[in-house]
Design goal:
This protein has about 200 residues and is mainly alpha-helical. Helices cover about 50% and strands about 10% of the residues. The protein has two domains: about 20-80, Helix Hairpins (Orthogonal Bundle), CATH 1.10.287; about 90-195, minor pseudopilin epsh fold (3-Layer(bab) Sandwich), CATH 3.55.40.20. The protein has eight helices and three strands, in the order αααααβββααα. Strand 1 and strand 2 form a beta hairpin. It is globular. The mean pLDDT is about 95.
């Protein structure tokens, strides 16, 4: 059974950047529904013994399963990395690789923010790594991600730009949401994903 990530903090803990009501709906309704639907569809298709990454990477899996697998996987990553505490900037090997790849942390943030802003409609912006530890910035529509798109890259940072992630607080101001989202990224978590 695929399990929704458990939050170890109160939904209000990310205020004022992400409000408790949005957290309650986004995590408690949207992510919970993706998790339940994915479990049901994966079980019916005989895929429950596979990892979510295997399911996403398999081109023969039907789109309805991939949509819910992506919703499950993408949100698990998103909710893992937004958390109170931890480092507010990358450190160690990840910080060095970001500087090597993008020139600076600020340049990386600008690149990812532009990709998120440029994603037409619902979707995501990603910071991913390959098997050599090289970093890549990308975006994708709907619940696609670098795994389901067959890039061979593993996401380590997810910026959710579906309207349910921000509309209650920010309305149509996606740029304001993204500017504030950087304040709740726990870079200790992202760093572990990079080195893992």
């Amino acid at each position: 059974m695929f399990e929704q990530i458990k939050l170890d903090y109160d939904p209000a803990a990310l205020e004022p950047y992400i409000d408790a009501e949005t957290m309650g709906i986004h995590y408690g309704k949207h992510h919970a529904a993706y998790t339940a639907n994915f479990n049901k569809l994966a079980s019916e298709a005989g895929l429950a013994d596979k990892s979510v990454e295997e399911i996403l990477a398999d081109p023969s899996v039907i789109q309805a399963i991939k949509n819910n697998a992506g919703g499950f996987y993408n949100h698990n990553l998103y909710f893992k990395q937004i958390a109170p505490g931890g480092s507010s900037v990358p450190t160690g090997k990840l910080a060095a690789k970001i500087s090597d790849t993008f020139g600076s942390f600020e340049a990386m943030k600008e690149t990812l923010t532009n990709l998120a802003m440029g994603q037409f409609g619902s979707g995501w912006a990603w910071l991913s790594k390959d098997a050599n530890g090289d970093l890549f910035a990308s975006n994708s529509p709907n619940q696609d991600n670098p795994i389901s798109l067959g890039t061979g890259h593993t996401p380590i940072l997810a910026l959710d730009v579906w309207e349910h992630a921000y509309y209650l607080k920010y309305r149509n101001l996606r740029a304001s949401y993204l500017e504030n989202l950087w304040n709740v990224i726990n870079w200790d978590v992202v760093g572990k994903l990079y080195e893992g």
